Amino acid sequence: MKMGWGDLGAFGEPSKETPNLDQMASEGMLFLDFYTANPLCSPSRAALLTGRLPVRNGFYTTNGHARNAYTPQDIVGGIPDSELLLPELLKKAGYINKIIGKWHLGHRPQFHPLKHGFDEWFGSPNCHFGPYDNRALPNIPVYRDWEMIGRYYEDFKIDLKTGEANLTQIYLQEALDFISRQQASQQPFFLYWAIDATHAPVYASKHFLGSSQRGLYGDAVREIDDSIGKILKHLQKLGISENTFVFFTSDNGAALISAPKQGGSNGRFLCGKQTTFEGGMREPAIAWWPGHIPAGGVSHQLGNVMDLFTTSLSLAGLQPPSDRQIDGIDLLPAILQGKLIDRPIFYYRGNEMMAVRVGLYKAHYWTWSNSWEEYSKGIDFCPGQNVSGVTTHTQEEHTTLPLLFHLGRDPGEKYPLSFASEEYQGVMERISAVVQQHKETMVPGEPQLNVCDKAVMNWSPPGCEKLGKCLQPPESDPKKCFWPH
Amino acid sequence: MKMGWGDLGAFGEPSKETPNLDQMASEGMLFLDFYTANPLCSPSRAALLTGRLPVRNGFYTTNGHARNAYTPQDIVGGIPDSELLLPELLKKAGYINKIIGKWHLGHRPQFHPLKHGFDEWFGSPNCHFGPYDNRALPNIPVYRDWEMIGRYYEDFKIDLKTGEANLTQIYLQEALDFISRQQASQQPFFLYWAIDATHAPVYASKHFLGSSQRGLYGDAVREIDDSIGKILKHLQKLGISENTFVFFTSDNGAALISAPKQGGSNGRFLCGKQTTFEGGMREPAIAWWPGHIPAGGVSHQLGNVMDLFTTSLSLAGLQPPSDRQIDGIDLLPAILQGKLIDRPIFYYRGNEMMAVRVGLYKAHYWTWSNSWEEYSKGIDFCPGQNVSGVTTHTQEEHTTLPLLFHLGRDPGEKYPLSFASEEYQGVMERISAVVQQHKETMVPGEPQLNVCDKAVMNWSPPGCEKLGKCLQPPESDPKKCFWPH
Hints:
Oligomer: homodimer
Number of strands of chain A: 18
Strand content of chain A: 15-25%
Structural class of chain A: alpha+beta
């Protein structure tokens, strides 16, 4: 899911159009300091499902320094078999696992979600970009389980002109049906509802078009909000809400480059998606579990999408794997007992640790918004914002004297602390030790997002022959992928 | 009161440290589109108490174009006798009226609040700037009713180094005592609790110092929040909460120039105090009246501090004066019946209508943050923000082609609509008619904030002789006040 911190009424969106999410928060626990592991979707999702930083699980590139990479159609890599995904582990405890929506961990056969622990899939392997002409580029397939059942813009319409598409309704129905079936068969389940209506090109179904003060993006948010309300009510109606842990969060900060028509809000945080400023990585987050989580709770626990891996295992009575470094922590003590667990947050961009947060302090070891070249083309990750020496358009190294911010007094990262201050000296001593330990023990995984090849695109996904939708791939021509940011 | 839209947890402050205000909102009605009449304290307060724009009630200057003016110690003017203040009118319905805190409508004898309808006063006529040496400048007096009882920094301590001052506690106790007395005597009352702990120099009492993640400013917010909680609980304890209408709002947007140590937050809105961007004029606002206002209400009614004049009269069964233009409207239909009243919001800076809001659209006829000269001294009303052609450092006239924003899709005023678009044409037709009517019927009042004279400072306020605190004024030397912004 893709939504900015500031997109929820509960987080101060001025139109306050998310009554269901706001109610979810008032019945559950709101996390104010929750992060993604990467300011881009593929690596964020890989981190959520593996409990590990992308630099460990391979969802990064070494084609350039500190570059964001993901899984476009021509990507050769994907989630390595050596990674253990949450559904694989949950299976051992008898869980049935379903992913609805965008997978984004690789689309070649070996990366199929049903090969990585999921029992069911409804959705697409890549973003819903398009439409394509099926010559230079094939349209993105939509899968049910092992096989494709159609393609976006062909069998699953998205009207780019009006923004109309009923995909969120389909994804909602899939979720409700899955939950009903599991309840009927008394089977524990894990549902990963990975929708993408707020990802450009943004869409909403007819009923929601024009329903928001915020334009099309707001329409999409309203539909997602409405769907989440329906899912929670469904759990209650089936009598399993006190037996079902629900967590709402987002892949990365709102993509401000898509504003104002298709871009969300990161509230007062700096910049957006693609950056390691707060706007790129701090996420809306709500835990809901009636009867267990005290209603109306608010937590300042530093959390991360990777924690959902460890927390989910804990809920299932399982231990995280001990043969590898797991970055996610078990949040249950924070959620159920209000404890505050001391742990750092690392802000990675590709192969570089750009920043780290310890307590209320955040130290930037590198700063970069995007290059002058990209910026001069109008690609702006920080529209209307400019903090001198911070939102830099060249990669600036601060490893000897990191830029230090106090996120309580200065959530917008506008006022670096003076290097000469006692506060700076004392805090950096603590942070340096954390960083040193992190770097010393870091064993990067084999980077998966280096090589691109048009031959690997979704030309002939499994099932295409039944639909007469197989396309002829071009000759293989592997190249280094180009990652401009 | 001085607080930014983004300073409340209910409006998305990331530290979420205002449990009492948030609860007030959940028990009452949150206004998302509520404004001040001026982005500076004196004119804002004059507008609240008269129900009229500062350009009508005289709280503006003609010394320069579009300049903010207020009531420093050397101001000669103040609230004219010809203006009818809310407490003067409420008196007719038997109300006892008290102001606690900063008056700011003039400090010379004829402007005394007890000459303008208030029965009681505890507080100061001006901001708590200082300390002064009582030679070049006298320290600001604190009054009880007609006479001064001491001066800031002398009898009422403010420790600028630690930020400690117990003033909010004193103001709180004054409020609780006043309410108790009125309840005991079964007397209807109007309490204007006009505190200023979040105005630089920001202060908090010892118990609250260091209590916030946000630094000293946050400590002050916490203390105010706590005090408001105590006032509401007091009303409940006395059994008069269902008989008492309470409204919380702020004078103007947070002063971002005081950030990060003493500055608040305007959330995602553009710029701050002194400007006519949303950050300068959109205010946090909560109406509370248990048993009458539906709990948890949220209103998109365009509201203004001037409406509190008309709404309060309506609550008291009184009509607003018919011999003058009143800008405030009665909000009760919006508050009690959820109606949406169509009305524009005018954004004035001094003698100039800078912008107007109609529905979700805001048209800027003039843009200005501050001058290059001031900006180059480090005075920045929009720190970290820069919207080309919008946050201008020269006064830019757009009267022939106003800059138009859609505040739903673009609350941050970053993306002016294309002049060529149909949307622009259609909307500007509507807005132009509103502006034309407004300008045609506008009769500006005599400007009160043009002349300054060191001789009128608080040298010898009434009561000074009893305390031995009378000071010798210098020779009168009236000059045009200098208003740089």
